[in-house]
Specification:
With about 1000 residues, the protein is of the alpha/beta class. It is built from 38 helices and 24 strands.
Amino acid sequence: MSLNPEPESPSERYRASVERAAEARTYLGGFTRSLAFDLDPFQREACLSLQAGRGVLVAAPTGAGKTIVGEFAIYLALQRGLKAFYTTPIKALSNQKYTELAGKYGADNVGLLTGDTSINGEAPVVVMTTEVLRNMLYAGSETLDDLGFVVMDEVHYLADRFRGAVWEEVIIHLPSEVQVASLSATVSNAEEFGAWLDTVRGQTDVIVSEHRPIPLWQHVMVGRKIVDLFAGDTTFDEVAAAGPADADDIAGGNGVSIAGTLESGTTDDGGSRPAAPAKRRAITEKAGFEVNPELLSMAKAESQMNFRGRFGHGGRSQRRHRNQRDEAPQSAQRSPVRKASRPQVIASLDRMDLLPAITFIFSRAGCDAAVAQCVSAGLWLTTEKEQAIIASRVDEAAQDIPSDDLDVLGFWSWRDGLLRGLAAHHAGMLPTFKEVVEKLFVDGLVKAVFATETLALGVNMPARCVVLEKLDKFNGEAHVNITAGEYTQLTGRAGRRGIDVEGHAVVLWQPGTDPAAVAGLASRRTYPLNSSFRPTYNMSINLVAQFGRARAREILESSFAQFQADRSVVGLAKQVRSREESLAGFHKAMTCHLGDFTEYTRIRRALSEAEKSASQNSSRARKSVTEDSLSRLLPGDVVDVPSGRTPGLAVVLSSDHQSREPRPAVMTMEHQLRRIGLHDLEGPISPLTRVRIPKSFNAKVPKSRRDLASSVHNALRENRPPAPPNRNEDFGRAAAAPNLERKITELRRELRAHPCHGCSEREDHARWSERWWKLRQETDGLVRQIQGRTNTIAKTFDRVCGVLSSYGYLETGESGTVSISPDGQRLRRIYGEKDLLISQSLRLGAFSDLDAAEIAALASVLVYQAKREDRGLRPKMPSVSLESAVDIVVREWSALEDVEEANKLPLTGEPELGLVWPVFKWAKGRHLQEVLSGTDLAAGDFVRWVKQIIDLLDQLAKIPGLEPRVSRLCSDAITLVKRGVVAYSAVA
């Protein structure tokens, strides 16, 4: 619904009616008539910019309706007889958008191009992944003819460190006459990104909307009760508009304190229903939004419980519980709240009329387990009529899947969950199954989906409610907290436009939950968009081939990465200028009438550094000598420990001369057993005397310890030798290097001889000179930063070209011109993270002696990326020829890694062998169950990797000039693996 205010005066109303009549005759007028709703102001503004021939960057929250702008670009293209490309970051979103546009404009007018799917690629409207468009641009594809518009959905993906560079490549290389509509989540530096687009694409309008059309309410689920996160009538828009407050500020905000939960009544289980908007109380102060006091009280009670549990006192019962607790993991915390199970959470949401809901669980296994738990609990969320519709759709979708594969795919348990209105959604599922879940959820037939965060990357699955089980996730290396941007992306799915009047975000209370921290996440909706662009081998050689090396370097300097670096340099340069002015003032203040005080200060600093080095050498020598004395102690040596926890006499029980930091075991005269180390000594330690330790000595027996202590006392009393002179008394001086001592003496002489040494204001000048030197060092550091950021992309490009030249892919003629060798022309058609390694493998004949099935298996080595924990010993290969081929690949990777390290370039990923056997078996026609047997691969993962293998094989088969036999076998390999569940797709 349009938010423009109605004109008040008759003249304004007349002018508005004239404008509406004029607009009705434009392309935008025709487009709006085809819609069942009015455009929002930001949508209208963006559409008018496109209609006027300008590019647009539209940044708006999830669910705000950004895609309407993209659809208008498509409408303009069709009306003007031009082509339009709609690019997406993931295949699932491409498939979904293709289905949507084909339904609107007809299947004949819409095509789909992804790495493994090609449908009607020459249609006037083509949906594709961004990589496909990048490949077209480098190949000079004829499909680009008559291209008028490109819609780049989820353009903020260019921050992705693995694939983000592709978005910048496309934006830079698209023909200048093509209008680009960039659709982004709300980012804090939209103006900066828009300024870059304006530089490389021409006039680009930046349209930012931070308004959510559906109000989003924030809650915490405590047990089975939903509690408002904020104390008051506070929506997502209002919290964000107040500005990002710190968690501490939120906890102690000045908003009106409203205790209690939502006020619209309670449910049977004691929970409370979300209140209607009219019943929520308004906050009267604008200084901030206060966290619900009930949540703060609960967090305080939980903290006190854990404190008492750790430090309380009591009788045997408490000690017993404390001992049990000590044996438990230290991270376990107690809570006064009994956490609701997953079935209880869904049942509570159902009673509160908050379904359909998406519960984000950052684990595939957790998503599948959640569905199984709900099924085991007997949860049914669907009617008999809905179950019949679901059954019909599921059976129809599965009719082309081989019956032998249904069991290994978990089809029957998946179908049972769907009939109940429950489903998982994650990358390990078969793409067909995910698409069915998406369609059933959008149609309101599936009521509860348990998903990983990949669902939030653009797949259109809005819900009434979004639930976050935890606020941390495993990122492949460690458990980390989710960011404010991720929180916004996930909770943005709540609230279906045209269906719901409000959306709800629910965080489940976990032991240790900090309500203020949750509020901090909820109050920050934006995050900066930072480029991840870097030149790759394929990108560099394509640029050189098309533009020459000099022009290619200039093009790379127009990247968003360099644009951001240059902008940061402007700020650094300003700091340098400011510091240079201060340096001039300091220099004036330290001027001495007797001589050059700058030179005098240099001598003073050199002397200070030399004395500091001598002191450090002395400390190192002291430590070394002390360590040596500890390592020389033998069992029976009696020593006097000067400091530490138990200073005094001790007898050595066992030596420790093997350790880097020796810690011999000793017994004190109080019969205590311990180890002594450097921290117990003030210098080298020497034995006072020796005693014989009996062979029968047992340190665990008190009598043995008493007898040994008595022996020590007797030895000291009967024949206590005088303390030996400390041979290392002057070890600090002796350890100092003679050259350093000589240097110190010379500098002292030079300092005393300098004219400024006799100045009466010497120390005053010295204070100013110290400030000057300190500021000079800081300024020089800033200058080095500027030098490091200037032309960073071009410098990386030069190093990449150096590697390509060393391998013979680039050739330099006598005139200095750079050309592409035949091997380089091959590299131009290979796209992937291991592009140069793949090209080298072809060049060295790794594919030459293989059959089609072996080629498919070898391709997996160059595509597959195993999880770190899945990597193991190298398996035996299925054949001798494949073993030889893998040896070539691994040897070449090792050599390439050395070259990349020497040139300070990102390292090419190690070839992975974990998918060789499954792909080989699949290519040989084995059943899916046999293929996956003995592996940890999910069916969906296997299908996804095989589709990437097909993409690589298709690239290789189409390389001009490739050996015909290898080209033919690559095509044959595609035929072998593109079968069964791999070949089947719900997109048709």
